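To: structure desk
From: M.T.
Subject: fold request, one chain
Message: Could you run this one when you get a chance? Sequence is below, nothing fancy, just the single chain.
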Amino acid sequence: MKIGYLLFAGMLGVMSTGCAVATEEAADAAAANPITTVGKVKIEWQNPDKYRDIRTASELQKRFQQRMFESLTKALDQASSKVLKDKEKLELVVTDVDLAGDLRPTFGKAAVSEIRVVKDIYPPQINFTYRVLDGDQVIMVGSEKLHDLMFMNRIYANDNTTFRYEEGMLKDWFNKTVAPKL
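Reply: Done. Structure tokens follow.
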């Protein structure tokens, strides 16, 4: 009888360990591909650790990434909210991002740090696939490799946000590519 209880307890332990491993794997997959949703826009950020350049010079990398993801999603929602109808939504799967500028090392008083130098030779770039849905029906689909070579020549009136070049590029894409077809 005691052997039966021991076998049963052992099986429960193995099963709970398997469930914990499966839960950890699901959490790792979600962390590897974070998803941000604002209004009618949903963006999946596919393998952000492999993006060309989303490094930060001054804050924790994960916090910086999350702030960037939320900022770009919010900007795209602002552009699309005027165009998308009630049941329509925009979904993106971002595969690569290269922020405007380039990180350069600086050497200060006993500390090495970095600063982002923004010049026109370092334009913002973003690669993604997208689809526009009306309920469950796909009404538009495509893929883009955006880059804005003229980003330094645009007017960003009173816009001192960190990701103004990338936000502007996404808004411009939406207004020129998606909005006219809707």
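Reply (cont.): Residues 63 and 143 are 28 Å apart (CA to CA). Let me know if you need anything else for the meeting.
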